[in-house]
Queue: 2 jobs
Job 1
Amino acid sequence: GNHPGPHGRFRGMEPMEIMGALLTPEGRDDPYPLYEAAHAFGTVVDVSEGFAMASGYEVVNRVLRDPAFGVWDHELRARTWPSELVERPSIKSMERSVLNSNTPEHGRMRALISSVFTPRRVGMLEPAIEAAVETLLDRLADEGAGGAPVDFMDRFGYRLPVAVICDLLGIPESDRETFRKLATQLAAVLDFIDLADALDLADAAGTELESYFGALVAERRRRPADDLTSALIAACDADEARLDEVELLANLTLLLIAGFETTANLFGNGVRLLFEYPEVADDLRLGTVRYAGFAEEVLRYDSPVQMTSRVALTEGLMVGGLPTPEGTEVALLIGAANRDPRRYEEPSRFDPRRTDINPLSFGAGAHFCVGSVLARTEAAIGFPRLLERFPALASAGEPRRNDRLVLRGYASLPVTVA
Ligand code: HEM
């Protein structure tokens, strides 16, 4: 091709080796040279029998939008996964959610969730988001007074999305710390790594969340409140039961998990990029770069969700010229697609002035992220307030990655604010 080749170390790597390297600690820490190596094979390539890897923007976009490719729903899992795995409480906890369902279940559930998770409801949340941001910034100012280092992830990155999603679902303030812990533990099932270790914790978290949400649903059935949980219940109980009880709990759990670590990572990855590109922070404060463009470029350049996958549901399908027989899994490397040299000029340059960014970070097609408006709203309020409030915001040491591949972000990010 006419784009710069991959980093010397990875040149000549076979697709199988690239996939394997992505799962190593080094690959998780910095997958981007491996994505470049994947681009060298074209937009999609066979990795092994029944497994392909797509790294091109157009191909990933097209597979996500093609109903002939499905997600790993409970039927597919039951047929192909070991039963010990399928039966684990952590796996079961979300297997009836929208994210793990195909037609027709998906359409029915998605319509119901979309009917309550409206831009209007998100708009109504704005004052609450602003208040939560101010509270967190006040505390950051106190704790960081005199240049004391504070952990941005712990004090802001994670706290804001947790507060917002808990507000939305109607989870009281006193339960939020527990929720954050359980959500992090259960989110391990969205990743591929070290599942053996993480699964025990995830199982316990899944079980605990299920009983918590079960109690919350019972309580809101008796006394509805002005929250999304009550709205979902009302929609379910309206005429015929449009979500059964298992589906209701699975989707509440999903909303918590999907809405929290992803948004936290948008904040963390963004702040880290501001430290790497201080001129961007200056331009944002001066108003010569727009915050909306900045957030989109953070999403593209270092996406909080790096990968998903789809399975060919019928025979005779092709992906970018590659035959994918029924049952073939296609790994969709969102993080690579967002840096496809065929789609973006100088893809490895962080440039919030780009136009037509449109990253695939929220997915596309039927499963396009339900929370994209909410996440963008949190960013649109959080980043400007943070930069205005703390002109001296600076890095205070090496950040630590969270050692995940799919949900890419920082476990800790030390900063000073004064
Ligand atoms: C789906 C990313 C925030 C709820 C998705 C998907 C992606 C994604 C890539 C599609 C997965 C696939 O097709 O396999 C993100 C990112 C976020 C974010 C990068 C933040 C920066 C949120 C928030 C919520 C949320 C705040 C809710 C409060 C969901 C749900 C789905 C989903 C329910 C499943 C939709 C379906 O299957 O129909 N998200 N998300 N997300 N997201 Fe998000």
Job 2
Amino acid sequence: MAANQVIFREGEAGDDAYILESGRIEISMGEGDAQRVIAVLEPGEIFGEMALIANAPRSATATTIEPCTLLVLRRNRLMKPIETADPIMRLTIQMMVERLNDASRWKAGQPLISQGSEAQRRAFAEVRELALRRVRTERELRRAIEKDELALHYQPIVGIADGSLAGYEALMRWNHPEQGFVPPARFIPLAEESGMVVQMGRWALERGLQEHAAIAAVYRTVHPGQPPPFISINVSAAQLHDLSEIDRFAGIIEAAGVEPDQIKLEITESLMADDPEHAAEALGRLKDLGVTLAIDDFGTGYSSLSYLHRFPLDTLKIDRSFVSRMDHDMASRLLVRAIVDLAADLGLQTVAEGVETEAEYAELAELGCDFGQGYLMARPCSASDLRGMLAQ
Ligand code: C2E
Ligand code: CA
Ligand code: CA
Ligand code: CA
């Protein structure tokens, strides 16, 4: 580009940002006599990004003062990562752009108009709302852990063939000081969104294993020589984004003194669907801890049967929705049968979730499903209730 060329002008709509490769560029504000140079850019500097980030017209004019070469950064290239970033990060970036804009206008002797269209203000308010909500939830959930407001309940999992206790699933509960008991459906998604699920999941593993050690001790005195039931713990995909979390798991398991083969981790299909490479790595490392792995809610979501053999799995948990429709819906019954058969072929065990009726139980027995969990057999209960049940 030759010298003295306008790249963009104040007030224009902006679609691209630029990186200056060679030459020099002048950024100015105002027009005619009021025009002031606010910056001279050197090679390596980025410019034109502010209008894109603020979703506003160009706040300044860019002119070459020497022959220049430019690298064009398309809107999408710049904005995709920002739009998908954490909302607090987005809010921070937008605020910084706004302040920088004000500072530049002040420096250039321009009136400080906090301009911006209605749509822009709305978009800004939305990001702010999202960011605030996230910060608040995060604070509340962190407080819940600190104030010991979280608890685990345990729901028995029985062998379908003889009804014996095979294990139990740890299910999180939040005893909120004002709202009372909050079911996990209302806070786990928020915990996942805010990232707090990482700490909460760690807490669940720690607490679950402590309580499991006590339950298993009771079991051993009542059933000497028999292997104690396993404990199943839910692990959110978000807990495994960072593989170093698995080292922490190892530390927690070691500290609790629980044999890893008594621990089953339940992971949803989304982990495998989102990034199969990463999932294979994460599941492989978990498996190396000596625990067993289950896919939760199997059959919902993204079920691609093709991935099953790629991961070191032990168990499929058949989603409640299929189990509860099994007695009156042929398709669901066929699906449960297909899952049980497939699992058998792959050497995996099956757990049917949400068994509520005798008819469902009988059906599952006939299909050869290994384990069942549901209100028919038992509802989730506290650790002390479970110990009491086992002591009888
Ligand atoms: P999930 O992992 O599918 O857990 C089974 C849910 O089904 C539990 O709900 C359980 O109480 C319920 N359930 C069991 N049997 C029956 C039945 O016969 N009928 C009916 N209608 N429901 C039955 P809950 O405890 O409300 O948990 C809901 C979800 O919250 C869980 O679904 C799981 O996705 C999540 N969750 C719970 N605890 C944790 C946790 O510690 N970590 C993570 N990441 N998620 C958790
Ligand atoms: Ca589960
Ligand atoms: Ca489930
Ligand atoms: Ca039913």
